[in-house]
Amino acid sequence: MSEQSANEIEKKESSSNRPIELDAELVLEPIPEQPQDPTKIAIEERIPEEIDLADPELYFNRELSHLQFNARVLEQAMDENHPVLNRLMFLCIFSSNMDEFFEIRVAGLKSQLEYSREKNGPDGMHPKKVLGLISEQAHKLVRRQYRILNDIILPKLATVNVNFIRRTVWNEKQATWVKRYFRDNVLPIISPIGLDPAHPFPRLANKTFNFVVELEGRDAFGRENGLAIVPAPSSLPRLVKLPDDVCEGGDNLVFLSSIIHAHADQLFPGMTVKGCFQFRLTRNADLEVDSDDIGVDLAGALRTELQSRHYGSSVRLEIADNCPAHIVDSLLKQFDLEQQDLYRIDGPVNLSRLMAVLELVDRPDLMYPPFSPGLPRKLASSGGLFEAIRQRDYLLMHPFESFSPVIDLLSEAAKDPSVVAIRQTLYRTGARSPIANALVEAARNGKEVTVVIELRARFDEAENLALASRLQDAGAIVVYGVVRHKTHAKMILIVRREGSDLTRYVHLGTGNYHAGNARLYTDYSFMTCNKDIGDDVHRVFQQLTGMSKELKVKKLLHAPFTLRDRLLEMINREAENAQKGEPSRIIIKVNALTEQKLVQALYKASQAGVKIDLIIRGICTLRPGIKGISSNIRVRSIIGRFLEHTRVYYFYNNRNPQVYLSSADGMDRNLNNRIEVAFPLQDYKQTRRVKKELEYYLTDNTQSWILQSDGSYQLSKPRKGEYRSAQRLLLSELADNTR
Fold first, then answer.
1. What does the entry list as the binding residues for ATP (predicted)?
2. Is 573 among the annotated ligand-binding positions?
3. 165 or 51: which carries more pLDDT confidence?
4. Distance of CA 494 to CAs 178, 393, 543, 714, Å?
5. Is CATH 3.20.20.150 what the domain over 43-146 is classified as, yes or no?
6. Which end of the chain is more exposed for a tag (fewer CB within 10 A), N or C?
7. Cβ(340)–Cβ(132) under 8 Å?
8. In the chain, which residues fall in CATH 3.30.1840.10?
9. Is 558 annotated as a binding residue?
């Protein structure tokens, strides 16, 4: 921490770091234009030579930018262009995103304060100040979330006969059925806990669903305490569908919270239940595996740490909005939380569990229609994938184009007697996925299968441990990469004997080897048997599985060794071309941009006159639109039906465009602390294709949010008849049909 006190630092922080306040009205409109930003004016008044590109006023706060991304996801629930069940899904996704934000980002800031390890980011903002602003903005977002649910989504669903029936309006038949359901399915497994000296407050796991019950009277032992805790068993569904014979048509659902609330008195016979209030506690869920204490067993250390994940320090309390203040204060004290950590909820405390509606309600008319991903004819022919890839490189964009060639390539390799070895990195895949099945089959068929599994893929650690065990049982060699660097690169290397030669076939991607995600995330897949790229991938695997000095690669950019420096070189080259009067252009599409040297290089390129377009889905700490610094930089975020996940780096390169696709975002962790690769497109048609697809995003006027220099995002508004959606264009162009 700096020698300055926290208070002194806070006084110097720029008010422009505060994110905009969301419009209180429930209408989907562009975020209103903000008044002139005093920070921007102060910076623009300086002459370029006086500008320090490390000035905190040139950077947005990382965590507040992250929160702004969650706000844009929430606004999708207001977009009437989405079918109503998809709008409900966006509410669920927002809830899940906020959970992770508190579990990881807020928990991290609190830990800094708790252990006196405060660290200001490039924006210069102290963690205590950041936590205060997060609380202010998060409370507004949560209030908006429940207003959207209660005032718009649930009424809209009711108009199409999907009803969430509150306990206050159950008819006699429904009340009788619910009572029987409680008796048969809930009461036998629920365990109410009265609080007294012999029954201390239970240790509640992270994000579990609970009730605090206020009681009056004495029990059979003469005890009179007044409070009890009722944990809702995780085995119980949070939504229950009522049978048709107790309803008047349509799909009718009740919340588990309503069922328990209505019958809370049965849990405490002879006592008077004065109140029953649902609540949920969020804890720090970030795993901290100390690399110095791992010894020789990363998997064992991770298994041990996973056991404690559910009981980290408290970071947030969500509770029913009608809970009395004295009970709330008691819970805050119990969990060592402050008022700013309290979120009063007007509805179910965990909206992400509403995703169950999609399984309980068979209403395809209320969701996006299915589509068939496209597939290049030669990949679909019966000649086999090895033959097709030997003739040319293939570039696929999921989900608009099929992910099946990636699975089929591994499946074909598993059966092909000419294939002698398979190597692959896995980050989020699943122990029983088609990819895992193909690798197991290959190992059992005698292939040399080596898999680099990143055990520390957040919230997929347990699944990855199970995957590692399954592959090892099949005879595959499993390694866990490099202890201090997560393996995030997406690579498959297949070695095939062809005559007297060994040929390397390669798949490289921007996304995970997960068939389900490939239907929801936009990602590129690249398949080739180019010798230089095959040699490079082989060398990267050598580093991952063995021990060696840095190995030189010909085509790939490789983090943490060459990727960041080469990106900086290519940005600087565009700046030099612009200064010479040559045409220049940079387009970068990533999930996040926070790496300070990368941001500063983009500022310098903008100052030199380079036109720069950044398509940043989530976090962006760069401040665009500042005269003399970033006036040539435009930043937009695309939020739509599919999660934007492609990472593309495009440089005009004096009329000889260079395009790199990558697993890496523009973040410090990706460029400096992970194993990542970026691979070049060497075919002119593929380069031109990616440029065209980038232009689709740059001209999107329906799902594009434009970042302003004050930190606000404005939703693009098309003129009548001029609607343009990048995702819809790609769907119509690349998919087989959109029936």
1. 97, 521, 617, 645
2. no
3. 165
4. 57, 15, 17, 46
5. no
6. C
7. yes
8. 169-293+306-366
9. no
